[in-house]
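can u do me a favor
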């Protein structure tokens, strides 16, 4: 009897082949790229900008670490106090008395209809004294005191925009593992795509660009009324205008953030982040959507086969090949990004994440209202 596979199994196999293409073309070459040293040309001063609203405790942890950055050319640290009602103003004002390179920008109100964070960042950037701008968030910390050195090396590639990686702290519980997996997989995508010449986003927790880029894109003008996108939509605008993009993914250049503590917090955070995707260039949406889509189709087809009359042997073979290959690739990426998850958890997290992603997409389609903190 001739060998025969059902159409559903052929579809499953096609999904796996597309996933393996992404692994072989984007992920593995990026994972195997050599690390870079922190020392290098450090002749240009830098402006570090942190936008904060009611983040006093986080600033007490972050700012001493930023002030300890080892960077010979010098830097200024601009804290943008965005309508805080805690003692942020008093704390930063005290720092300015001891550190001349610490500066405070105070926002008392936001014009109607504008994104509060983008408006605050715009005013902060206008006060910056240096051409190179480096951004992080108040709830982050730099992984090392070489963070500034590493990130500034990206401008020497040469580049106008520098993309960094921001991980989440490891804690107990399944939610923490899922958040870290989602962050890791998102980072693997935007960093490896950019490394291949297809930059499409960055994260405001670890991002650098020049003042010229900000002026070239007219700041956040194209999306100033959108709550999300102060990072990825700016990268979109910059690339559309010919800006050069560099990737700095070494562990010393990372920032580390505290993850959401509840499913609800993470749900709201991810809805806000995903809402900017509709404004991406068509080619980027196709590239990202294909990767997400084939993974969703893989799991959906598998469920359909399990509830039909399955061909158990070929189904198990396809699943085994896909699981072993993608687990190995994710493990390699985790080593490259110094953001490791237990290998045994990777197949489980992968499946849960893509179903969670589907639920998020449906939520955004049905309910589009977003709120800023």
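np, heres the sequence
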């Amino acid at each position: 009897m001739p060998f025969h596979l059902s159409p559903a199994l052929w579809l499953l196999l096609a999904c796996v082949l597309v996933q393996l293409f992404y692994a072989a073309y984007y992920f593995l070459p990026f994972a195997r790229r050599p690390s870079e040293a922190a020392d290098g040309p450090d002749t240009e001063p830098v402006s570090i900008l942190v936008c904060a609203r009611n983040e006093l405790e986080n600033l007490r942890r972050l700012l001493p670490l930023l002030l300890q950055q080892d960077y010979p050319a010098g830097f200024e640290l601009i804290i943008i106090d965005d309508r805080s009602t805690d003692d942020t103003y008093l704390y930063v004002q005290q720092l300015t008395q001891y550190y001349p390179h610490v500066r405070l920008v105070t926002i008392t109100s936001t014009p109607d209809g504008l994104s509060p964070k983008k408006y605050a960042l715009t005013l902060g950037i206008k006060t910056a004294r240096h051409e190179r701008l480096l951004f992080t968030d108040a709830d982050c910390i730099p992984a090392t005191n070489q963070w500034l050195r590493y990130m500034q090396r990206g401008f020497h590639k040469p580049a106008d925009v520098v993309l960094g990686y921001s991980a989440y702290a490891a804690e107990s519980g399944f939610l923490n593992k899922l958040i870290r997996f989602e962050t890791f997989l998102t980072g693997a995508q935007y960093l490896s795509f950019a490394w291949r010449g297809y930059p499409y986003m960055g994260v405001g927790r670890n991002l650098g660009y020049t003042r010229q880029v900000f002026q070239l894109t007219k700041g956040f003008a194209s999306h100033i009324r959108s709550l999300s996108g102060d990072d990825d939509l700016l990268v979109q605008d910059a690339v559309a205008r010919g800006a050069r993009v560099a990737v700095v993914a070494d562990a010393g250049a990372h920032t580390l953030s505290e993850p959401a503590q509840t499913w609800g917090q993470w749900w709201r955070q991810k809805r806000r982040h995903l809402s900017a995707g509709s404004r991406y260039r068509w080619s980027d949406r196709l590239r990202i959507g294909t990767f997400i889509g084939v993974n969703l189709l893989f799991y959906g087809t598998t469920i359909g086969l399990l509830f039909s009359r399955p061909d158990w042997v070929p189904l198990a073979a396809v699943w085994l090949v896909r699981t072993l290959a993608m687990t190995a690739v994710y493990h390699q990426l985790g080593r490259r990004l110094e953001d490791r998850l237990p290998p045994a958890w990777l197949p489980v997290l992968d499946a849960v994440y893509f179903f969670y992603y589907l639920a998020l997409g449906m939520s955004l389609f049905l309910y589009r209202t977003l709120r800023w903190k």
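The first helix runs from residue 7 to 31. hope that helps!!
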